[in-house]
């Protein structure tokens, strides 16, 4: 089905004597320089290649002559037309006949022409990463948005995926929260007497609202109260070592918090195969540390255990200005700490131990982590450690997808009017409310779920249409517009098609392109399908968003110029219904991959 591949093959055949330019050994060729791309002048052609210009450099002939020669070697056919143009490009036009065939193949393909991987791999996705006992805020939006879409992309292209939320449930915030609750008298029952079964003691008075007050309070206090911080550190250690009653209290808080986290992710159409957390690596931690010690990769430093991970040549010494100045280095990669001075486990330790656990349990070919770019250093350390100790086998790919910040219109991280952190649920609330207003303008009131679908679509498309690494501006009005490069626009296009299809009395027929508008639509489908691979290779969904938008706008032109329902020629009308169905299916699939719901009407 891949047109690009077909064209490349034909050009390869047309190379004739120039084939030798690609020889690596007798009868062995490397055609990687032969790039056929979509044309940037769609009025002239559909595809183009500059291969004649490349060859010209080594054979000393004019590119246009080479281009003409290549074309003359290609057998004329009914599918593609080749033209040589000055100074030596080869332009390619796909015939309507070939495009119609493509469209019908897509219609009959369960995968709708989405390219499939050659070898199926198991890819594990680690995203979400909410921290137990801490309320989700605006900074927690991007990971579930990007992660869910990447996971769905891999599924659409034929990989097997495993998703794990990897909760932050093992760190200082747990010690702080429990200490604060204890000081404020909420845990008296647990500390009154020693019982073999703390499970029977209820923690009913500890609600989410209370946690949302207690943690921030403790967090502020730790910065000014050294003794408090020290005690919280100790509590954290108790939890990590399963000491009672701390461990039972911890588990109860975890349960409460996880239920809430789950609900919040589901609002964003984000689900996980596993709700594991840092704490689940606990049974693997001693073994992990032992691997480093046994392999002599760890050394003691000020009571802590550290692993040197800097590579040859990385520590470039900066010349000292005076002899007693300490030696400084350019781009130093600091050693990773895997055991704290007090025996506590660190973020890096749990992450390395988690890799060990995942490799024992799931054996993924790749693990993809989706977090903001401030964690790049952390993951570089974790990956290096895991590779050094061979906890991650040689062929396993470890990927950190680092995303940028969601900013406000002032270009600074999105804040409340008073300058505070915006809560996650307030962003979702804002999206739903604005979508409700928009719907009301269109005469639809009281459909909260529809408003959620549209609001989430606005948010996700606004996010994913940017390169993942980039910061972007959260602009709710722009994201929610029913026309323009937005999620709601794509949903609207589908809703429009639904309305046409439900009003038409005829069944659709095979596609046979018979207008420029239809031609543009099918070409947009070709481009949409090729964008999946671009996204797969770049771990970013922007190409798919753009291609979906282009298809929706090609449909809009068709809709405005060709009166489908009033078309008198029945054959023609049925064919147009085929085009409508093609667009609907392809857009629905693209939206699904982006984690956006299609809607029946809006
Ligand atoms: N809990 C972490 C945070 O809030 C994110 C977890 C990301 N995943 C991981 N395996 N470290 O920053």
Keywords:
single chain, 602 residues, 20 helices, globular, binds arginine
Offer a concise description of the structure.
This protein is an alpha/beta fold and 602 residues long. The chain is 49% helix and 11% strand.
Describe the protein's topology.
Blueprint: H1 3-14, E1 23-25, E2 28-29, E3 36-38, E4 47-49, H2 51-59, H3 63-73, E5 80-85, E6 89-94, H4 96-107, E7 122-126, H5 142-156, E8 160-164, H6 172-183, H7 188-192, H8 208-222, H9 226-240, H10 246-267, H11 282-294, E9 298-301, E10 304-307, E11 316-318, E12 328-330, E13 336-339, H12 347-361, E14 366-372, H13 376-388, E15 397-403, E16 406-407, H14 424-441, H15 448-464, E17 472-473, H16 476-480, H17 487-503, H18 516-538, H19 542-561, H20 570-594
Parallel strand pairs: 7-8, 7-14, 14-15, 16-17
Antiparallel strand pairs: 1-2, 3-4, 4-6, 5-6, 9-10, 10-13, 11-12
Helix pairs in contact: 2-3, 4-18, 6-8, 6-9, 11-12, 12-13, 14-15, 17-19, 17-20, 18-19, 18-20, 19-20
Bound molecules: arginine.
The site of arginine has 8 residues, from strand 14.
Q: Would you mind describing this structure in some detail?
A:
Helices cover 49% and strands 11% of the residues. With 602 residues, it is an alpha/beta fold. Strand 5 and strand 6 form a beta hairpin. The radius of gyration is 29 Å and the shape is globular. The two termini are 34 Å apart. The mean pLDDT is 94. The site of arginine (ARG) has 8 residues, from strand 14.
